Amino acid sequence: xxxxxxxxxxxxxxxxxxxxxxxxxxxxxxxxxxxxxxxxxxxxxxxxxxxxxxxxxxxxxxxxxxxxxxxxxxxxxxxxxxxxxxxxxxxxxxxxxxxxxxxxxxxxxxxxxxxxxxxxxxxxxxxxxxxxxxxxxxxxxxxxxxxxxxxxxxxxxxxxxxxxxxxxxxxxxxxxxxxxxxxxxxxxxxxxxxxxxxxxxxxxxxxxxxxxxxxxxxxxxxxxxxxxxxxxxxxxxxxxxxxxxxxxxxxxxxxxxxxxxxxxxxxxxxxxxxxxxxxxxxxxxxxxxxxxxxxxxxxxxxxxxxxxxxxxxxxxxxxxxxxxxxxxxxxxxxxxxxxxxxxxxxxxxxxxxxxxxxx
Length: 359
Ligand code: NAI
Ligand code: MG
Known about the structure:
It catalyses: (R)-malate + NAD(+) = pyruvate + CO2 + NADH. By secondary structure, this protein is α/β, with parallel strands linked by helices. Helix content is 39%, strand content 22%.
Protein backbone atom coordinates (compact mmCIF):
# COMPACT_ATOMS: atom_id res chain seq x y z
CA UNK A 1 0.00 0.00 0.00
CA UNK A 2 1.01 3.58 -0.59
CA UNK A 3 2.38 5.29 2.54
CA UNK A 4 0.44 8.15 4.06
CA UNK A 5 2.46 11.19 3.06
CA UNK A 6 2.39 14.31 5.18
CA UNK A 7 3.38 17.54 3.47
CA UNK A 8 5.32 19.76 5.84
CA UNK A 9 6.52 23.32 5.27
CA UNK A 10 9.82 23.89 7.08
CA UNK A 11 10.64 27.46 8.10
CA UNK A 12 13.96 27.34 9.98
CA UNK A 13 14.29 31.17 9.90
CA UNK A 14 17.11 32.54 12.07
CA UNK A 15 20.03 31.60 14.30
CA UNK A 16 19.71 28.23 16.05
CA UNK A 17 16.34 27.86 14.30
CA UNK A 18 18.21 26.54 11.27
CA UNK A 19 20.23 24.09 13.40
CA UNK A 20 17.34 22.63 15.36
CA UNK A 21 15.02 22.36 12.35
CA UNK A 22 17.72 20.44 10.47
CA UNK A 23 18.03 18.14 13.48
CA UNK A 24 14.26 17.66 13.75
CA UNK A 25 13.95 16.89 10.05
CA UNK A 26 16.72 14.29 10.25
CA UNK A 27 15.03 12.60 13.21
CA UNK A 28 11.58 12.61 11.55
CA UNK A 29 13.00 11.22 8.32
CA UNK A 30 14.71 8.44 10.28
CA UNK A 31 11.40 7.68 11.97
CA UNK A 32 9.62 7.45 8.62
CA UNK A 33 12.37 5.23 7.16
CA UNK A 34 11.88 2.86 10.08
CA UNK A 35 8.12 2.68 9.84
CA UNK A 36 7.88 -0.17 7.30
CA UNK A 37 6.56 2.27 4.76
CA UNK A 38 3.52 3.20 6.86
CA UNK A 39 4.02 6.94 6.43
CA UNK A 40 6.37 9.45 4.81
CA UNK A 41 7.15 13.14 5.00
CA UNK A 42 7.32 15.42 2.00
CA UNK A 43 9.25 18.56 2.95
CA UNK A 44 9.45 21.97 1.39
CA UNK A 45 11.77 24.50 2.99
CA UNK A 46 11.15 28.25 2.89
CA UNK A 47 13.91 30.86 3.25
CA UNK A 48 11.93 33.44 5.21
CA UNK A 49 13.49 35.21 8.17
CA UNK A 50 15.79 38.12 8.94
CA UNK A 51 18.34 37.36 6.17
CA UNK A 52 15.50 37.30 3.68
CA UNK A 53 14.29 40.62 5.08
CA UNK A 54 17.77 42.06 4.57
CA UNK A 55 17.70 41.05 0.91
CA UNK A 56 14.06 41.71 0.02
CA UNK A 57 12.59 43.99 2.68
CA UNK A 58 10.03 41.27 3.48
CA UNK A 59 9.87 38.76 6.33
CA UNK A 60 7.66 36.50 4.17
CA UNK A 61 6.67 36.59 0.48
CA UNK A 62 3.40 38.33 -0.38
CA UNK A 63 1.89 34.99 -1.42
CA UNK A 64 3.57 33.16 1.47
CA UNK A 65 0.44 32.50 3.51
CA UNK A 66 -1.42 31.32 0.38
CA UNK A 67 1.37 28.81 -0.26
CA UNK A 68 1.55 27.64 3.34
CA UNK A 69 -2.19 26.90 3.37
CA UNK A 70 -1.60 23.85 1.18
CA UNK A 71 0.54 22.04 3.76
CA UNK A 72 -0.48 19.56 6.46
CA UNK A 73 1.69 21.39 9.01
CA UNK A 74 4.39 23.99 9.46
CA UNK A 75 7.64 23.10 11.24
CA UNK A 76 9.17 26.32 12.50
CA UNK A 77 12.58 27.18 13.98
CA UNK A 78 12.89 30.63 15.53
CA UNK A 79 12.72 34.13 14.16
CA UNK A 80 14.79 37.15 15.22
CA UNK A 81 18.26 38.52 14.62
CA UNK A 82 20.02 41.65 15.85
CA UNK A 83 19.94 43.14 12.32
CA UNK A 84 16.13 43.55 12.43
CA UNK A 85 14.05 45.04 15.28
CA UNK A 86 12.39 42.14 17.13
CA UNK A 87 8.86 43.51 16.86
CA UNK A 88 9.23 43.64 13.07
CA UNK A 89 10.61 40.12 12.71
CA UNK A 90 8.18 38.54 15.18
CA UNK A 91 5.05 40.25 13.82
CA UNK A 92 6.27 39.88 10.23
CA UNK A 93 6.58 36.11 10.33
CA UNK A 94 5.62 34.08 13.38
CA UNK A 95 2.71 36.14 14.68
CA UNK A 96 1.53 36.68 11.11
CA UNK A 97 1.22 32.93 10.62
CA UNK A 98 -0.36 32.33 14.07
CA UNK A 99 -2.97 35.02 13.58
CA UNK A 100 -3.86 34.46 9.93
CA UNK A 101 -4.14 30.71 10.41
CA UNK A 102 -6.20 31.16 13.58
CA UNK A 103 -3.81 29.02 15.63
CA UNK A 104 -5.61 30.02 18.79
CA UNK A 105 -4.32 27.32 21.11
CA UNK A 106 -0.63 27.23 21.95
CA UNK A 107 0.26 24.03 23.83
CA UNK A 108 3.45 23.99 25.87
CA UNK A 109 4.14 20.85 27.87
CA UNK A 110 6.67 20.99 30.69
CA UNK A 111 8.13 17.80 32.06
CA UNK A 112 11.33 16.63 33.56
CA UNK A 113 13.67 14.41 31.60
CA UNK A 114 15.79 11.65 33.12
CA UNK A 115 19.42 12.66 33.41
CA UNK A 116 18.70 16.39 33.24
CA UNK A 117 19.31 18.37 36.40
CA UNK A 118 16.50 20.77 37.31
CA UNK A 119 17.28 23.86 39.37
CA UNK A 120 14.26 22.85 41.46
CA UNK A 121 15.15 21.43 44.84
CA UNK A 122 12.65 18.58 44.81
CA UNK A 123 12.39 17.93 41.10
CA UNK A 124 11.27 14.41 40.38
CA UNK A 125 10.47 13.59 36.79
CA UNK A 126 7.93 10.99 37.79
CA UNK A 127 5.79 13.59 39.56
CA UNK A 128 6.33 16.88 37.79
CA UNK A 129 4.43 17.16 34.56
CA UNK A 130 2.22 19.95 33.33
CA UNK A 131 0.96 21.65 30.17
CA UNK A 132 0.61 25.38 29.65
CA UNK A 133 -2.30 26.18 27.33
CA UNK A 134 -1.76 29.64 25.96
CA UNK A 135 -4.46 31.76 24.38
CA UNK A 136 -2.73 32.52 21.11
CA UNK A 137 -5.00 34.81 19.10
CA UNK A 138 -5.86 37.85 21.21
CA UNK A 139 -5.14 39.11 24.73
CA UNK A 140 -2.08 41.29 25.15
CA UNK A 141 -0.73 40.33 21.70
CA UNK A 142 -3.78 41.53 19.77
CA UNK A 143 -1.67 44.29 18.25
CA UNK A 144 -4.08 47.03 19.28
CA UNK A 145 -2.77 50.46 20.04
CA UNK A 146 -0.75 53.25 18.58
CA UNK A 147 2.14 55.60 19.11
CA UNK A 148 2.59 59.32 19.27
CA UNK A 149 -1.06 59.81 20.10
CA UNK A 150 -0.47 63.14 21.76
CA UNK A 151 1.04 64.57 18.60
CA UNK A 152 3.71 66.16 20.78
CA UNK A 153 6.71 64.59 19.08
CA UNK A 154 10.06 63.53 20.56
CA UNK A 155 10.17 63.68 24.33
CA UNK A 156 6.40 63.94 24.65
CA UNK A 157 5.37 60.72 23.00
CA UNK A 158 2.44 58.67 24.27
CA UNK A 159 1.86 55.02 23.39
CA UNK A 160 -1.11 52.77 24.10
CA UNK A 161 -0.97 48.98 23.97
CA UNK A 162 -4.36 47.45 24.56
CA UNK A 163 -5.36 43.89 25.31
CA UNK A 164 -8.38 42.32 23.64
CA UNK A 165 -10.50 39.70 25.38
CA UNK A 166 -13.57 38.20 23.75
CA UNK A 167 -15.99 35.78 25.35
CA UNK A 168 -15.63 33.45 22.36
CA UNK A 169 -11.82 33.62 22.48
CA UNK A 170 -11.72 32.88 26.22
CA UNK A 171 -14.28 30.11 26.06
CA UNK A 172 -12.69 28.12 23.24
CA UNK A 173 -9.24 28.02 24.80
CA UNK A 174 -10.70 27.10 28.20
CA UNK A 175 -12.76 24.25 26.72
CA UNK A 176 -9.59 23.09 25.01
CA UNK A 177 -7.81 23.11 28.37
CA UNK A 178 -10.62 21.18 30.11
CA UNK A 179 -10.76 18.59 27.33
CA UNK A 180 -7.00 18.19 27.61
CA UNK A 181 -7.25 17.80 31.39
CA UNK A 182 -9.67 14.90 30.88
CA UNK A 183 -6.97 13.00 28.98
CA UNK A 184 -4.49 13.30 31.86
CA UNK A 185 -3.98 11.38 35.11
CA UNK A 186 -4.49 14.54 37.13
CA UNK A 187 -7.76 16.16 36.04
CA UNK A 188 -7.16 19.73 37.03
CA UNK A 189 -7.19 23.11 35.27
CA UNK A 190 -5.56 26.18 36.81
CA UNK A 191 -6.62 29.50 35.30
CA UNK A 192 -4.20 32.41 35.51
CA UNK A 193 -5.06 36.12 35.37
CA UNK A 194 -4.27 39.41 36.99
CA UNK A 195 -7.92 40.29 37.44
CA UNK A 196 -7.40 42.21 40.66
CA UNK A 197 -5.51 44.88 38.72
CA UNK A 198 -6.89 44.44 35.20
CA UNK A 199 -10.57 44.80 35.87
CA UNK A 200 -12.09 44.48 32.39
CA UNK A 201 -10.54 41.80 30.21
CA UNK A 202 -9.32 39.57 33.00
CA UNK A 203 -12.55 39.77 34.97
CA UNK A 204 -14.34 38.64 31.82
CA UNK A 205 -11.80 35.79 31.60
CA UNK A 206 -12.56 34.77 35.23
CA UNK A 207 -16.31 34.82 34.62
CA UNK A 208 -16.05 32.70 31.49
CA UNK A 209 -13.79 30.26 33.35
CA UNK A 210 -16.37 29.81 36.11
CA UNK A 211 -19.13 29.21 33.57
CA UNK A 212 -17.14 26.75 31.43
CA UNK A 213 -15.99 24.86 34.56
CA UNK A 214 -19.63 23.97 35.31
CA UNK A 215 -19.64 21.77 32.21
CA UNK A 216 -16.69 19.78 33.58
CA UNK A 217 -17.72 18.76 37.12
CA UNK A 218 -15.17 15.93 37.01
CA UNK A 219 -12.27 18.38 36.59
CA UNK A 220 -10.80 20.18 39.58
CA UNK A 221 -10.26 23.92 39.07
CA UNK A 222 -8.50 26.89 40.62
CA UNK A 223 -8.02 30.56 39.67
CA UNK A 224 -4.63 31.99 40.56
CA UNK A 225 -3.14 35.43 40.01
CA UNK A 226 -0.11 35.40 37.76
CA UNK A 227 2.33 36.66 40.37
CA UNK A 228 1.23 33.95 42.79
CA UNK A 229 1.32 31.38 40.01
CA UNK A 230 4.92 32.18 39.19
CA UNK A 231 5.78 31.41 42.81
CA UNK A 232 3.69 28.25 42.69
CA UNK A 233 5.55 27.01 39.60
CA UNK A 234 8.68 26.96 41.72
CA UNK A 235 7.31 25.97 45.13
CA UNK A 236 4.43 23.58 44.39
CA UNK A 237 4.88 22.34 40.82
CA UNK A 238 3.42 18.94 41.72
CA UNK A 239 0.09 20.68 42.28
CA UNK A 240 -0.31 21.59 38.58
CA UNK A 241 -1.62 19.69 35.59
CA UNK A 242 -3.13 21.99 32.93
CA UNK A 243 -2.50 25.73 33.24
CA UNK A 244 -4.58 28.01 31.00
CA UNK A 245 -3.59 31.64 30.61
CA UNK A 246 -3.68 34.64 28.33
CA UNK A 247 -1.12 35.23 25.60
CA UNK A 248 1.42 37.26 27.60
CA UNK A 249 1.04 35.50 30.94
CA UNK A 250 1.35 32.06 29.37
CA UNK A 251 4.34 33.17 27.32
CA UNK A 252 6.19 34.17 30.47
CA UNK A 253 5.06 31.19 32.55
CA UNK A 254 6.07 28.69 29.88
CA UNK A 255 9.62 30.08 29.74
CA UNK A 256 9.72 29.77 33.52
CA UNK A 257 8.42 26.22 33.26
CA UNK A 258 11.00 25.18 30.70
CA UNK A 259 13.80 26.74 32.75
CA UNK A 260 12.59 24.71 35.74
CA UNK A 261 12.74 21.59 33.59
CA UNK A 262 16.42 22.38 33.02
CA UNK A 263 16.68 24.56 29.89
CA UNK A 264 14.71 26.63 27.42
CA UNK A 265 16.28 24.36 24.80
CA UNK A 266 14.12 21.42 25.97
CA UNK A 267 10.72 23.02 25.61
CA UNK A 268 8.32 22.04 22.83
CA UNK A 269 5.22 23.77 21.57
CA UNK A 270 2.32 23.48 19.16
CA UNK A 271 0.32 26.39 17.72
CA UNK A 272 -2.95 24.68 16.90
CA UNK A 273 -5.88 25.57 14.71
CA UNK A 274 -8.11 22.97 16.37
CA UNK A 275 -10.80 23.24 13.66
CA UNK A 276 -8.14 22.23 11.12
CA UNK A 277 -9.22 24.89 8.65
CA UNK A 278 -5.57 25.95 8.40
CA UNK A 279 -2.27 24.19 9.02
CA UNK A 280 -1.01 24.16 12.60
CA UNK A 281 2.56 25.16 13.44
CA UNK A 282 5.07 23.27 15.60
CA UNK A 283 8.13 25.02 17.04
CA UNK A 284 10.45 24.98 20.03
CA UNK A 285 9.60 27.56 22.69
CA UNK A 286 13.04 29.17 22.51
CA UNK A 287 14.17 31.95 20.19
CA UNK A 288 17.09 32.23 17.75
CA UNK A 289 19.75 32.32 20.54
CA UNK A 290 22.26 34.60 18.76
CA UNK A 291 24.71 34.02 21.64
CA UNK A 292 25.23 30.37 20.66
CA UNK A 293 24.09 30.25 17.02
CA UNK A 294 26.31 28.59 14.42
CA UNK A 295 28.48 26.75 16.95
CA UNK A 296 26.74 23.39 17.14
CA UNK A 297 25.71 24.11 20.74
CA UNK A 298 21.95 24.31 20.25
CA UNK A 299 19.88 21.76 22.11
CA UNK A 300 17.62 20.13 19.50
CA UNK A 301 15.28 18.47 22.02
CA UNK A 302 12.73 21.31 22.08
CA UNK A 303 12.44 21.10 18.32
CA UNK A 304 12.27 17.29 18.35
CA UNK A 305 9.63 17.35 21.10
CA UNK A 306 7.66 19.76 18.92
CA UNK A 307 7.91 17.22 16.10
CA UNK A 308 6.34 14.68 18.48
CA UNK A 309 3.44 17.08 19.02
CA UNK A 310 3.13 17.30 15.22
CA UNK A 311 2.92 13.50 14.97
CA UNK A 312 0.10 13.52 17.53
CA UNK A 313 -1.67 16.14 15.43
CA UNK A 314 -1.27 13.87 12.38
CA UNK A 315 -3.03 11.09 14.29
CA UNK A 316 0.15 9.07 14.92
CA UNK A 317 0.22 8.94 18.75
CA UNK A 318 2.27 5.74 18.88
CA UNK A 319 4.95 7.36 16.69
CA UNK A 320 4.90 10.43 18.92
CA UNK A 321 5.42 8.17 21.93
CA UNK A 322 8.30 6.47 20.12
CA UNK A 323 9.95 9.83 19.56
CA UNK A 324 9.44 10.85 23.19
CA UNK A 325 10.97 7.56 24.35
CA UNK A 326 14.00 8.27 22.14
CA UNK A 327 14.34 11.68 23.81
CA UNK A 328 14.22 10.12 27.28
CA UNK A 329 16.70 7.40 26.33
CA UNK A 330 19.08 10.03 24.95
CA UNK A 331 19.03 12.26 28.01
CA UNK A 332 19.13 9.27 30.38
CA UNK A 333 22.30 8.10 28.58
CA UNK A 334 23.88 11.48 29.36
CA UNK A 335 24.04 12.71 25.76
CA UNK A 336 23.44 16.34 26.71
CA UNK A 337 24.25 19.72 25.18
CA UNK A 338 25.99 22.44 27.17
CA UNK A 339 22.79 24.19 28.34
CA UNK A 340 21.88 21.06 30.32
CA UNK A 341 25.37 20.46 31.65
CA UNK A 342 26.84 18.23 28.96
CA UNK A 343 29.42 18.51 26.20
CA UNK A 344 27.53 16.94 23.29
CA UNK A 345 26.94 18.91 20.09
CA UNK A 346 23.62 19.33 18.30
CA UNK A 347 24.78 16.63 15.91
CA UNK A 348 25.76 14.21 18.70
CA UNK A 349 22.30 14.51 20.24
CA UNK A 350 20.64 14.12 16.84
CA UNK A 351 22.62 10.95 16.13
CA UNK A 352 21.78 9.55 19.56
CA UNK A 353 18.07 10.26 19.02
CA UNK A 354 18.16 8.50 15.65
CA UNK A 355 20.05 5.59 17.20
CA UNK A 356 17.32 5.15 19.81
CA UNK A 357 14.66 5.15 17.09
CA UNK A 358 16.24 2.54 14.92
CA UNK A 359 17.30 -0.05 17.45
P1 NAI B 1 16.33 32.86 23.24
O1 NAI B 1 15.32 31.83 23.54
O2 NAI B 1 16.81 32.92 21.84
O3 NAI B 1 17.60 32.66 24.20
C1 NAI B 1 17.52 32.75 25.62
C2 NAI B 1 18.64 31.92 26.25
O4 NAI B 1 18.38 30.53 26.06
C3 NAI B 1 20.00 32.19 25.60
O5 NAI B 1 20.99 32.16 26.58
C4 NAI B 1 20.17 31.03 24.65
O6 NAI B 1 21.50 30.66 24.39
C5 NAI B 1 19.43 29.91 25.36
N1 NAI B 1 18.84 28.96 24.39
C6 NAI B 1 17.78 29.20 23.58
N2 NAI B 1 17.56 28.15 22.79
C7 NAI B 1 18.50 27.23 23.09
C8 NAI B 1 18.78 25.92 22.61
N3 NAI B 1 18.06 25.33 21.63
N4 NAI B 1 19.84 25.26 23.14
C9 NAI B 1 20.57 25.81 24.12
N5 NAI B 1 20.35 27.04 24.62
C10 NAI B 1 19.32 27.75 24.11
O7 NAI B 1 15.70 34.26 23.67
P2 NAI B 1 16.25 35.75 23.44
O8 NAI B 1 17.73 35.77 23.57
O9 NAI B 1 15.42 36.60 24.30
O10 NAI B 1 15.85 36.13 21.95
C11 NAI B 1 16.73 35.99 20.83
C12 NAI B 1 15.93 36.26 19.57
O11 NAI B 1 14.92 35.27 19.39
C13 NAI B 1 15.21 37.62 19.59
O12 NAI B 1 15.32 38.15 18.29
C14 NAI B 1 13.75 37.25 19.89
O13 NAI B 1 12.83 38.16 19.36
C15 NAI B 1 13.65 35.90 19.19
N6 NAI B 1 12.60 35.02 19.75
C16 NAI B 1 11.88 34.31 18.83
C17 NAI B 1 10.94 33.39 19.24
C18 NAI B 1 10.21 32.60 18.22
O14 NAI B 1 10.53 32.65 17.04
N7 NAI B 1 9.24 31.82 18.59
C19 NAI B 1 10.67 33.16 20.67
C20 NAI B 1 11.53 33.94 21.57
C21 NAI B 1 12.45 34.84 21.10
MG1 MG C 1 8.31 33.26 24.59
